[in-house]
Amino acid sequence: MNERSGRRVAVISGANRGIGLEVCRSLAAAGLHVVLGSRSAAAGEKAAKALVARGLDVEPHPLDVTDDASVRALVDHVERMLGGADVLVNNAGLLLDENEDVLQVDVEHFRECMDTNVYGPLRLAQGFMPGMIARGYGRIVNVSSGAGQISSMRDYAPPYSLSKAALNALTRLLASAGRDRDVLINAVDPGWVRSDMGGAAAPRSLEQGADTIVWCATLPRGGPSGRFFHDRKEIPW
Asked: b or e along 186-204 (b: 16 or more beta carbons within 10 Å of the residue's beta carbon)?
């Protein structure tokens, strides 16, 4: 909790645009102090400034989830200046090879997607979760995808699909680590959303995509953990 304001503190990665930015807006509107993580410092500052102009409590911070030093700098800042994170939304993501055959995709593209979509959330969880456990409160939301559902996986974007399935597995591992400490970790499929990643043809708005993420980020004590959700309903892994 923010030691200066008494508010809960939320950290969102990949938050200068799209779903991440909408999650920032929604959580700040709900009264949280929001740390807007962005790989581009300039883009993050611009996005945060627009939210602050609307009276919301948002601060930008540079964050490259694939860089250990960048993650450590963010964790150190939040712990030292804000008393730690109460909410972590792992939203930063990389989509590659949407229309490529798994047998033809460069293995390096798999590594790149895993680094951003799996190891990035792991780095952040390892940084923030010990403090959550020690304080007896935490909410972590891993922004996944229906493409990562093993039960329905086909041939879409192989590196992305594989990484999101791995992110779902990480969700289960983290949920086990946070059990009995009111640290709840869940994965969310926001659906196909009109964002830079989803494109203009997507049927869902940013608000629809962000809704279940915000819901999981603000679950009450005793809420679900280690689950996969879409539109606030549990879905199969």
From this structure: bbbbbbbbbbebbeeebeb
Tokens of 236: 């199969």
Q: Contact at 8 Å (CB) between 14 and 21?
A: no
Catalytic choice (119, 137, 156, 160): 160
CB 167 within 8 A of CB 117: yes
Answer for the pair 124, 90: CB distance below 8 angstroms, yes or no. Answer: yes
Instruction: For residue 137, indicate whether it is catalytic.
Output: no
pLDDT tens-digit readout, 78-122? 999 999 999 999 999 999 999 999 999 999 999 999 999 999 999
Residue with tokens 């800042």: 77
Estimate to the nearest angstrom the gap between the alpha carbon of 34 and the chain centroid: 13
Token digits for 14? Answer: 């990949």
**Residue 65 DSSP class:** T
> In this structure, what DSSP letter does residue 203 have?
S
d(CA 24, CA 21): 5
Q: Under a CB-based contact definition with an 8 Å cutoff, are residues 36 and 58 in contact? A: yes
Query: Half-sphere exposure (CA, 13 Å, Cβ side) for 168?
Result: 22
Each residue of 185-234: pLDDT tens digit?
999 999 878 777 777 787 788 899 999 999 999 999 999 999 999 999 99
| 58-62 sheet: strands from edge to edge | 58-62, 33-38, 9-12, 87-90, 138-143, 183-188, 228-230, 233-234
